[in-house]
Amino acid sequence: MSEIKWTALSVFLFFFLLVTVLGFVASRWNSKDSKGVGSTLDEWGLGGRQFGAWITWFLVGGDFYTAYTVIAVPALVYAVGAYGFFALPYTILVYPFIYKVMPKLWQAAHERGCVTAADYVYDRYTDRRLEYAVAITGLLATMPYIALQLVGMEVVLKAMGLHGEMPLIIAFLILAFYTYSSGLRAPALIAFVKDVMIYIVVIAAVILIPIKLGGYAAVFAAASTAFASKGGATGTLLQPGQLLPFATLALGSAFAAFMYPHTMTGVLAAKNADVVRKNAIFLPAYTILLGMIALLGLMALAAGIKPENPTEVVPLLFNRIFPEWFSGFSFAAIAIGALVPAAVMSIGASSLFTRNLWKPLVNPNLTPAGEAQTAKIVSLVVKFGALACIVGLPTKFAIDLQLLGGVWMLQIFPAVVCGLFMKRVHTGGLFWGWLAGAVFGTTLAFSSGILKPVYGVVIGGETYSVYIGLLALALNLVITFAATVISPSKANQSRFA
To answer: Can you tell me the mean pLDDT for 25-49?
Structure first.
């Protein structure tokens, strides 16, 4: 067992306690509802739909760029080289999509009082099957995503010498209770602190670490040598066979990103559609940050880091290069980076469960106050479920499910997006397209006996590796459009297109 790093731990605890106080104080922040934050789902789950451009920028950035991103992207680059940079083009492609689609979705949701994507889908198509499909997909995809935020927190606790589940349990208990108390206002307020800290850490890392390692030329040379020793399948440049899977992963991930309940929650909490457009313009600043984060994987190779698990490369690199006090600051930034998205994810998931499963299936007469109270309780259950996954199951289980999450979320893309731009869409086609795409994508992911994000399609004797999510989405769209063309009389008329 490694020795506890007391200086790092002290700095870590200071900032962790700071955001804990902010989390509870947030219940009284910017609230115009005299009945309190928990009086309605709008107030608790969407912060009263009054977040301006500045708050939304921090909130959406905070739940889109998570602690697991800071840990996983460098780990992937460390393991597979340039292929791990697919997250960069995907976070560039996603913003034109946000600019075009999300303001229109915000407008439709605001006019009809929709709190979730499933609310909008039901209001648009008046089909309970589609509503349940969107809600269940969001819940299944979000649970492992929350669990993976715990992975990010777990590795930094381990880097400070804290082992076992108890520190993780205590941290998540604190998160659970201030989210219950303050709703979306808690992660929105904490996101300010989190993002400033992450920017400080990453800017310091990309300046100081290469200086310690002899400069960027030395970093890339050492990384190239390390990849060459693996046999040439990886490198600091994309290999020819990686170009198509790289491109399709980026494109599919971009389409799926803002279908997730947590990113959707951040958008719907904005006070108007113009706030959403402004964020689509300014959020790419986070892509620059992500590019710098990804470089940490190459720096770890150059520094000779030899982790037991690739997810440990960033904490090990910081421990080796930074003074202990700054390592503690960095670990606090990563841990807080887990709290913000985990809180938003649990809020988004609990809103879906309450509005789109519990209310229509169990208690149709649920009052607005009852909705808020049910969602608050479910948010606790969701967090403890994610905690149980990490404590009781191998981490790889959560990672595998998260890989499937992107495939699943792409299957609600037609139901959410087509209704905004097409006057008529066949509701049955959307449902059966969703089901076929989800089953097909899941089957392909398991077909080789191990979950993989890409699948080899044989055309003319040549094999082309394509992101499974896009293959499943293609099947989904074919069924949706075929049904719309074959039975136009049964296509649903849009109020929004």
So the answer is: 75
Residues 317 and 303: beta-carbon distance below 8 Å: yes
- Which residues fall within 8 angstroms of residue 244, CB to CB, at 6 or more apart? 464, 465, 466
Calpha distance 94→32 (Å, rounded): 33
The answer to the question of residue 246 being in a domain is yes
State the Cα–Cα distance between residues 317 and 302, nearest whole angstrom: 10
CATH of the domain at 243: 1.20.1730.10
Most confident of the ranges 57-61, 82-86, 270-274, 309-313: 270-274
Residue 26 resides in a domain? yes
Tokens of 326: 């700054």
Structure tokens at 139: 């819940």
**How many domains are contained in the chain?**
1
* 3-class state of residue 425 by DSSP: strand
The answer to whether residue 472 sits within a structural domain is no
Query: Residue 89 class from Cβ within 10 Å (0-12 exposed, 13-18 middle, 19+ buried)?
Result: middle
Structure tokens at 122: 């039901």
For 140, counting Cβ atoms within 10 Å of its Cβ (0-12 exposed, 13-18 middle, 19+ buried), the class is middle
pTM given for the model: 0.90
Amino acid at 430: L
- Is the pLDDT at 227 greater than 60? The verdict is yes
Amino acid of residue 127: D
DSSP 8-state assignment for residue 423? S
Confidence of residue 1 (pLDDT cuts 50, 70, 90): very low
Block residue for tokens 């205590």: 170
pLDDT tens string 266-289: 999 999 999 999 999 988 888 888
How far is 85 from 475, CA to CA, in rounded Å?
A: 27
Alpha helices in 258-323 (DSSP H): 261-268, 273-282, 285-302, 313-321
Candidates 253, 244, 242, 246; CA nearest to 470 is 253
Domain that holds residue 181: 6-394
> Considering the domain boundaries, does residue 219 fall inside one?
yes
